[in-house]
Amino acid sequence: MTQPKPRKLHLAAFLTGAGSNVAAWRHKDTPSDGPVNLKLNIELAQIAEQAKFDFAFIADSAYITKSSTPYFLSRFEPLTILSALAAVTSKLGLVGTFTTSFSEPFTTARQLASLDKLSGGRAGWNAVTSALEDVAKNYGQEKLHEHAVRYKIAAEYIELLKGLWDSWEDDAFVRDKEKGIYVDFDKLHTLDHKGEFFSVKGPLNMEPSPQGRPIVFQAGASDAGKELAAKEADAIFSNSSDPEIARAFYKDVKQRAAAYGRKPEEILIFPAITPIIGATEEEAQRKYEQTSAYVDIDLAIKYLSRFFSFHDFTQYPLDEPLPDLGDLGKDSFKSTAEGFKRMAKEENLTLRQLALRAATPKGNFIGTAVQIADKMQHLFETEAVDGFIVYGYVQPEGLRDFAEQVVPILQERGLFRTEYEGETLREHLELPYPVNRYTKERVNQHEQQIDPVLSHPSGG
């Protein structure tokens, strides 16, 4: 009997900005223009690929104000920078954020399919519903839909894109020069989608990539977000690496996926971590304190307000416990806002303390390389995570330290690959190849035609 293949840890690199600290651009070894510095982004992607990471991830948002934190003010939109990185990498997956609330489905489907094709099957899509109220005003609307409606839109949007990506069966493009046959039009299919929110005819003018279609990621931690991910996503970005919270989240999402007839390994859970590595714990702590000193309280307050629809926190005393904020944030970054409110209440934090905690994330991954590897291994082996999004506290130092010091330990322990075993992102993540719905229909019809013969006692 064939033994099941042992689980392997998955790793991704968070490329956005100069680092996880909102003032990381001030670090002496970090380019001050990190979010729009092509050289830095190439360096980070190549560090990740050399370390055999599964993918690199670019986050995005389409709204800023004068009170926005520095690295939101000017940054590459994902498709542009990921296309550039596709040309200087050969194995690394390329995942970017695209909104389901304001981007036209056909356009998004075509853009992502193009990235997937030109990269040889390495594209992924982080499907977000957009959480900042004034994003809507950049797209001709007055306000965001309420949280529940945004997720209904997202569910239809993702299903629609998958339908467009099935426009061409895998072997439709014959390109037979001798016979003069470019394509088999019997394997072209028009979607004709007419739903509650969208009407899209199709078909898509882009053939499938070697991985079939882009990998779908989702980042919502609310019930609506988890339900959408369980049904449609290949992977989900979780927002906690606390062992108990992470295990509960992991179990919840996997159970929801099972309710849709999916196997647990068909949806992967990735929390983000910010490792700060030192030769000793004390050295790692000093690194954290040095970079935290770059952030003044005014910047920290601005950063915190982003998760609460830019609520004016300056009206509250800095050094008193945070007042009850009620349902503030329910239609913004809902799960993140709720997490900050819960943190403030449970730890009796002042506004100053909460803002600095948000702007200079410390987390549980500060210490020696062995200590960080131990914590990652524990979370992985106790089924709290399938992998991690690694965000350097400052870039490129943070990612390079992790790649050079922690990854070899994970490899020595047999937890992480030493070489890529496939070419596509789907292969890296060990996810099943998606069967084109029209190919599946064709196979089912064929089986129905031969079933009577197969079921006859004489075999015919």
UniProtKB/TrEMBL annotation:
According to the record, the segments passing through the membrane are: none
Arranged from A to Z, the UniProt key words for this protein are: Flavoprotein, FMN, Monooxygenase, Oxidoreductase
| The UniProt record lists the keyword Flavoprotein | yes
Q: Which CDD domains match?
A: Nitrilotriacetate_monoxgenase
Residues of the Luciferase-like domain: 24-382
Q: Which Gene3D superfamilies match?
A: Luciferase-like domain
Superkingdom of source? Bacteria
Family classification = Belongs to the NtaA/SnaA/DszA monooxygenase family.
The name of this protein is LLM class flavin-dependent oxidoreductase
Q: According to the entry, what is the taxonomic lineage of the organism?
A: Bacteria, Bacillati, Bacillota, Bacilli, Bacillales
